[in-house]
Amino acid sequence: MNAEDFRKYGRKMVDYIADYLENIREREVVHKVTPGYLKKRLPDEAPENPEDFEEVFKDIEKFIMPGRTRTLDYFIILTYLVLSFCEEHRPSTTVFQRTRFWAALAALLQVISSACSSASASRLQDFLGCPLFLLPCGFQACNAGWWFPQGKVEAPFLGTRCVMVTHWHSPYFHGYFAAGNTYPSILGDMLSDAIGCIGFSWAASPACTELEVITTDWLGKMLALPEEFLHCGPGNGGGVIQSTASETTFLCLLAARNKIVDKIKKENPDIREKDILPRLVGYCTDQGNSSVHRSALLGAVKMHKLESDENLSLRGDTLKEAIERDKNDGLIPFFLCASLGTTGTCAFDNLEEIGPICEAEHIWMHIDAAYAGSAFVCPEYRHYMKGIQYAETFSVNPHKWMLINFDLSVMWIKNSSYLVDAFNVDPIYLRHTNEGKVPDYRHCQLAKEFEKLILDDGRFEITSKTVMGLVCFRLKKGNKLTELLLSEILEDGRIYMIPALCRDVYFLRLAVVAERTTSEDIRFSFEVIKTCADKVLRSSGDFKEDEPVFVDIDLSRKKPTQPSKIKTHK
């Protein structure tokens, strides 16, 4: 697909999306298929040759989005009844009468289908087996048995064209807390996918990181969160975007676990972590989301479910009794997941009662407000938030009420260092000169090959075997000059690279990640590296050119002569 094809089919896709959303009320909301339905319809092997997008679009209509709209169903049933009548009385009608009937029926079909969406009209033609404008000739096909097998009319019940998608955005979808959706959100996803940056650090994408900081502060202020939760607040707090509230709960539990383990080990230097973990216990209400218990299982800690009151709210006395009981049993309470708007009943825990207890017992209180949190934009709902100042973390899902496409969950934390310390992965290739000035998120790396040009220049050496698309190289002169080379490259600014350190060998990594990168781009990057190397080597004095030396760093050796310092992140 080239740019022109993208423009062409992009317009068609936008039209399809708009048509789908504007007419979603007409669609049956719930699927009518059984597990394994799609496997029977698709080949076992992936296609070896590309298909035209028109064919792909037909497959979407055929295998993913079939199912008739309500208007179309009424229309087809009417057509079926008329056809059944004609089939039954075919011998008593003349050719002239049947011709007039089909012409009248075709006109009726055109009128009703014009009131339907284009997708509905297409499905109508699929059911009838021919384009609408050919219906006046339909009597000939009917007489010949072409339209219906053996000339028999079969009832068009929904089993013949099953609904395969549950339409979460339908006004008639009343099941789960539905995900949001708006045209601006869809357009935003399109632009984000096109830019395709991975914002795992400020240096990797400054706009990505800074926009996240600003917008999470905007949202935090809209929700009237305490200043301690904001990047612009007085402390070390701030918001960060996650995928789901379940993921957020898990992260908070691990951060709380790391905090309490560190505290205990500092107070008792001889105690081992494996002796602490079995004693840790967390709490949640019996109305809480099941993800809390899954988080505890993954975090290898106990989670006790506490009984809620008659209003399905967790109260202070219940929590206090549980803490005292567990402490008497030798357990260490460390975490509480409170709920504001539970999944099952939209119940609210009493933060004003349980918050002070958590503070006194040094228990990390996380507030899960995935659904109801969006309502706190409205002042009349903020009474549910009383006691939020006792929380360490707070999360809400804008992809529910705030009309943002799934997935988007935002969490705020009072002290971000607890989260950073719990998940600290700091290899040299993720470092940059602005560390500490802005927060960094997510880790990702991809690469392409570039080895040959390096091998053709006698001033460089390959430091490890080139695997897939990543090339690791350095100046033969050693670590210091290679470090100066990187500084020169970054100062030049035409390309961007990062270093790594393995067994005291400092080297540069060149990774090609853009889909449109060509060999010409690679040569340009190499010319930049060569120019910068010239400057560094000239400033360092004489340098004797040698043949490229391949340094085979065997990472599989159990006892290396020098300890490895490289850290990797998958």
Automatic annotation (TrEMBL):
The keyword Glycosyltransferase does not apply. Keywords: Catecholamine biosynthesis, Decarboxylase, Lyase, Pyridoxal phosphate. GO terms for biological process: amino acid metabolic process; carboxylic acid metabolic process; catecholamine biosynthetic process; serotonin biosynthetic process. Belongs to the group II decarboxylase family. The modification N6-(pyridoxal phosphate)lysine is found at K400. Homodimer. It comes from Magallana gigas. This is Aromatic-L-amino-acid decarboxylase. Gene3D superfamilies: Aspartate Aminotransferase, domain 1, dopa decarboxylase, N-terminal domain, Type I PLP-dependent aspartate aminotransferase-like (Major domain). Pfam families: Pyridoxal_deC. It comes from the Eukaryota. Its cofactor is pyridoxal 5'-phosphate. One of its GO terms (cellular component) is cytoplasm. Its EC number is 4.1.1.28. One of its GO terms (molecular function) is aromatic-L-amino-acid decarboxylase activity.
